[in-house]
TrEMBL record:
InterPro entries: AB_hydrolase_1, AB_hydrolase_fold, MES/HNL. Pfam families: Abhydrolase_6. It comes from the Bacteria. Residues 4-229 form the AB hydrolase-1 domain. Keywords: Acyltransferase, Hydrolase, Transferase. The keyword Transferase applies. It comes from Salipiger abyssi. This is Putative hydrolase or acyltransferase of alpha/beta superfamily. One of its GO terms (molecular function) is acyltransferase activity.
């Protein structure tokens, strides 16, 4: 049995893991999903959210060591969490996620390194300019193109605005996160983070710790059983 903590990406929340949690439990694992500040049931104003507050929320959800699974932008805060408390993290799993390579890397800087920018046309700044949301008419193709209509309806009803400050803040790394085992899951049909860039970020890991599946950006909704099976495989080493 492994213990998992599932951390969502931009504009999502714990809700996106609803079908993965029982699938992991059916395989004998203990799994929890959290809302980062400003997401889901957490109503922290975007102006008050930092990368540090994301990390603090993750640490508070780790009473015991666990495998941290970070989706998309969550690759950055799970890395900083492992840097600050490596003894609390059994393994980092990057699910089509931004993986920092050194101090100063942030969601924003990592995204700008992509040769393609599929997300930019869909970003809409909110009043006050401390957060943004994704254009609803573009979200299905970006995130959920291989999901059922019911899953897309569920997701669209739950998407929220995304605070900008924690995405602009860079990690501070001194080698402690590198002591934690890491895996990368490349989603080969991703329309949000180009698969070629995912492979580039994953190239820093041993080949046996890199997995690729023909999934969109949201396998937790399109293939939760397949994702749970792969996480089970990773947990078993």
């Amino acid at each position: 049995m492994a213990r998992f903590l599932l951390v969502h990406g931009s504009s999502h929340g714990a809700w996106c893991w609803r079908d993965v949690l029982p699938a992991l439990a059916a395989r004998g694992h203990e799994a929890t999903a959290i809302d980062l500040p400003g997401h889901g049931a957490d109503d922290t104003p975007p102006e008050g959210i930092t990368l540090g507050s994301y990390v603090q929320a993750i640490l508070e959800a780790l009473p015991e060591p666990a495998i941290l699974v970070g989706h998309s932008m969550a690759g950055v805060p799970i890395t900083q969490t492992a840097e600050e408390a490596p003894e609390r993290v059994r393994r980092l799993v990057y699910l089509c996620a931004y993986r920092p390579g050194g101090t100063g890397d942030s969601v924003a800087t990592l995204r700008r390194r992509q040769s393609e920018q599929p997300l930019l046309p869909a970003i809409r700044r909110d009043p006050g300019r401390a957060s943004f949301h994704f254009a609803p008419d573009m979200s299905r193709d970006l995130f959920y193109h291989d999901c059922s209509d019911a899953a897309v309806e569920f997701a669209m009803a739950n998407l929220c605005s995304q605070a900008i400050p924690p995405q602009a803040e860079g990690v501070r790394l001194a080698g402690r996160a590198e002591t934690v085992p890491q895996s990368y899951i490349v989603c080969g049909e991703d329309h949000a983070i180009p698969p070629a860039y995912q492979r580039e970020m994953a190239a820093a890991l041993p080949p046996e710790d890199v997995y690729e599946r023909p999934w969109s950006h949201s396998p937790f909704l399109s293939d939760p059983e397949g994702l749970a099976a792969l996480l089970d495989r990773i947990a078993q080493g």
